[in-house]
Amino acid sequence: PEERFVLQSFDPRVLKHLHKKYPKIILSHLTEKKESPDQVKKILGFTPQIFSPDYNLLAYEDIPLFHAQGM
Known about the structure:
With about 70 residues, this protein is an alpha/beta fold.
């Protein structure tokens, strides 16, 4: 079943396509850039269930901001 796995991608085009075609798939936005929750939503056009930045780019204080947005 679609809800039993997570698809991760650095490519927003892949995530956009899958979100539109298979909305039950859990998606993870991978990034090597510093991004805010609003930037992630703007890049993708939706809120991914999981945000996966390079761990060096995420400060502990940022985590509640992403959680508040549903990531």
